[in-house]
Amino acid sequence: GAVVSQHPSWVICKSGTSVKIECRSLDFQATTMFWYRQFPKQSLMLMATSNEGSKATYEQGVEKDKFLINHASLTLSTLTVTSAHPEDSSFYICSARPGASGLVGTQYFGPGTRLTVL
Amino acid sequence: RKEVEQDPGPFNVPEGATVAFNCTYSNSASQSFFWYRQDCRKEPKLLMSVYSSGNEDGRFTAQLNRASQYISLLIRDSKLSDSATYLCVVNQGGKLIFGQGTELSVKP
Question: Which of B78, B79, B89, B12 is nearest to B47 (CA)?
Answer without folding.
Answer: B89
